[in-house]
Design goal:
It is built from 3 helices and 6 strands. The protein starts with a helix and ends with a helix. Helix content is 35%, strand content 30%. It has a single domain, classed as Lipoprotein like domain (Double Stranded RNA Binding Domain, 2-Layer Sandwich). It is extended and about 85 Å long. Strands 1, 2, 3, 4, 5 and 6 form a 6-stranded mixed β-sheet that branches. By secondary structure, the protein is of the alpha/beta class.
């Protein structure tokens, strides 16, 4: 009989401890109070207008979807097309390849693909959370390859890093 009471008390303390700590997410997200929905507006690719940058077809669509997917997978928020409690918007401002190292024949031994995104985050319920910030990342690849050769793996890595940085800045508060 004593064992039953002991187990009951341990379970009760554990439940009280968990409840007193608030809602915890194993993804590290800290959803603002009252926020239930989010919206990701289309990220237009304006990178082609800058020296050294190029327009990559579909980049805008793919990045927008990558950000939506990350937030859906790491939070309990519902994705909506309009009227979200929090809104992500912005534009792709850079998509460029630059040589990083040269060979004796004055050819690129290594290139760097860089992508930058200007993000505006708006919390409709708490304007103090609003931010506007540039996020960027790069992918280095051998000079004997073209962007087309490495595009899929490069974009996967760049998208993963930039979207996670955006998530951490806006919802994880890291």
């Amino acid at each position: 009989m004593y064992q039953i009471y002991k187990r009951f008390i341990i379970i009760l303390f554990f439940c009280l401890f968990v409840v007193s700590c608030g809602i915890y997410s194993f993804t590290g997200s800290s959803i603002p109070t009252g926020v239930e929905t989010f919206q990701v507006d289309y990220f237009e690719n304006i990178a082609g207008g800058k020296p050294g940058s190029t327009i990559e077809p579909g980049l805008d669509r793919d990045f927008t979807i990558a950000l939506q997917d990350l937030i859906v997978n790491q939070t309990s928020l519902n994705l909506v097309n309009q009227g979200g409690d929090i809104i992500y918007s912005g534009e792709i401002t850079e998509f460029s390849v630059t040589p990083m190292a040269a060979t004796a024949e004055i050819k690129a031994a290594q290139n760097r693909l860089t992508m930058a995104v200007m993000v505006s985050y708006e919390n409709i319920l708490n304007e103090e959370d609003n931010i506007e910030k540039k996020f960027s990342f790069y992918y280095d690849f051998p000079g004997n390859l073209q962007v087309y050769d490495i595009k899929d793996s490069a974009l996967e890595e760049i998208f993963e890093r930039i979207t996670q940085d955006i998530f951490n800045e806006t919802l994880a508060k890291w």
